[in-house]
């Protein structure tokens, strides 16, 4: 393999310091987790053996993301009973459920969101609380089990402390607040600002798990944004190379550092039948198609591309009403080190920490063994016990 990546990247502009971002994930009662809280830094690795709940923690993060985008509960939790802690006992009305939450930092300071979900006998949100600075800005509760609605109360102003209304019990209330809160008083504006901070922090998330078996062959051209499995990586390579030569140069340097043999370029090659394939240029006219690369090389290439791109290229549900420059992209990567050799792990972590320190991108990945990342600058390691 060639030399390591350069230590500086003048092409990447640092982000403003107050961009909304998640700094804590709370799993009060979710799958194998009880009273668990995980700090989230710019680059976070969740480490632990099989059965410690790494994948379920990422699943809870993704669920909050989808709920913040307005997705209904049944779509987010197709098997809700699997989210209920195994030893959770039903109450006298035979109800069981789970609780998840998070904290978003930004211009409004720390904003907390906590959600209680009933999984049995019927899937519904039974409680939600949005708080900031010790003040409850939104609180919902299930008052009448016979109605598919919760009673919501949000902060208004000192003269009229709260406003009450019914909200659906199958969707998160926080992203619905702009439809119900007028924003005429200081209290209402505070509610809206906190809700916006939470939603923006949660929405720009890309769930990534590259699948080498789908990356080797040609793909249709013009397929759009990069998929979570990176199936259409070849087509997206052509787009990124044309749109930003400086970032493409960083990608080539990353591939050169993590793939065997010389690499002078990474290109998308049209085949004339409406498809395109990706090739590595080796110099002296030698080219290697992705079909000849190993699984580890393909996963390393795909993850490097994800870290070097942005919301406009990745297939994610970003907050369209907020400019991209005011959002922080978060990449969720289960099995981040899967299939990678020691050099590839180190190079990928070096690239991730360098990109994350600039503020426009954050990474939360799971690994089974984190000894190779010990002492790495800018990396938050969270150890999970089974």
UniProtKB/TrEMBL annotation:
Under SUPFAM superfamilies, the record lists: P-loop containing nucleoside triphosphate hydrolases
| Keywords of this entry | ATP-binding, Nucleotide-binding
Q: Name one GO molecular function term.
A: ATP binding
InterPro entries, per database record: P-loop_NTPase
Q: What is this protein called?
A: ATP-binding protein
Q: From which organism does this entry originate?
A: Streptomyces luteolifulvus
